[in-house]
Amino acid sequence: MFSTSRSVGFYHLPVSKVFVSSVIVTSLAVSLPLHHVRHLFVYTYQDIFDKLELWRLITSKLVFLDPKDLVCGAILIFYWRIFERKLGSQKYCSYLLATGFLASLLELAALYCCKKAELDLDSLPTGPLSFLFPLFVPFFCDIPRVAVTNILGIPVTGKTFTYILGFQIASTSIESVLVAGCGLISGLLYKANFLKIKDWFHVPNFVAGIADKTLGRLVKTETVQQINTPLGATLELQRQQEIELLEEQLARQQFRQMRNMGGMAFQPRGAGIFGNLFDGGAQPRQGHNQPAPAVQEEQVQTLVEMGFVRENVIEALRATNNDVSMATNVLLHNS
């Protein structure tokens, strides 16, 4: 009835797929067979303001010359695919272009100010950092923080590793801190709709249509890619992980059923199927007679602010017994 596997990869996410593949291919090409042209992908104050080589602003965003940044950046692009799933490919691409443009302007302004303040800076770090760091703003503001465990009294959440990746890239040098800071400010300006940038800086519909008919066909995923979920080393951990996976899949199934039946069917977690599977019971399903749990308005608002429809949020919370993390997964996989 259920399989112990979950959807992964870039299914229906063409922008993320093109983004990560192009960055990896170009970075490896410049680092290995085309290493003699590496100097074309960096820029300094002299290159921009003295030599007026403005094209370096574009080429420097195309490749990672630092292997560490390439690994961390590729993982971040993979994580950020959640925003393309939430916003849609066209809006996600618009967000990347708008915030990248703002971040690049802020970099130039910061570089000019540092030069006037007689602060010596080396070449700025390469790679699409101007597109990656602005996404930390909606990641911090819109994605729920769900504690997983505690280490030395410090709460560790599902978002902790993502922050560590960003800190690893930003802490490389002073120049990296400058680029990361410009990216974060860019994300804040976009969130505040500075100069109404959301209204005029977006990908036109005809451009999106052309891209979908050309690049979209090349990167189209025919079927959902699936892998088996790795299980724990002990039988107890394996059983717990299997139960959690089945709960999540059951919640998704219930969510789809609730949408089809007008939000009436509900089965509480921990009873029903899990009693039948693991306790040997043959308890009949309560179905329509089982009252749905009351959802908390605070949880509803948290998910609505992420861009989900209020009615769908309420159904997802009921299907997951008010588990915000699981409800978020259900909404993302059914959006």
From TrEMBL:
<dbReference type="InterPro" id="IPR035952">
    <property type="entry name" value="Rhomboid-like_sf"/>
</dbReference>
<dbReference type="GO" id="GO:0004252">
    <property type="term" value="F:serine-type endopeptidase activity"/>
</dbReference>
<feature type="domain" description="UBA">
    <location>
        <begin position="294"/>
        <end position="334"/>
    </location>
</feature>
<dbReference type="InterPro" id="IPR009060">
    <property type="entry name" value="UBA-like_sf"/>
</dbReference>
<keyword id="KW-0472">Membrane</keyword>
<dbReference type="Pfam" id="PF00627">
    <property type="entry name" value="UBA"/>
</dbReference>
<keyword id="KW-1133">Transmembrane helix</keyword>
<dbReference type="GO" id="GO:0016020">
    <property type="term" value="C:membrane"/>
</dbReference>
<protein>
    <submittedName>
        <fullName>Ubiquitin-associated domain-containing protein 2</fullName>
    </submittedName>
</protein>
<keyword id="KW-0812">Transmembrane</keyword>
<dbReference type="InterPro" id="IPR015940">
    <property type="entry name" value="UBA"/>
</dbReference>
<dbReference type="InterPro" id="IPR041928">
    <property type="entry name" value="UBA_UBAC2"/>
</dbReference>
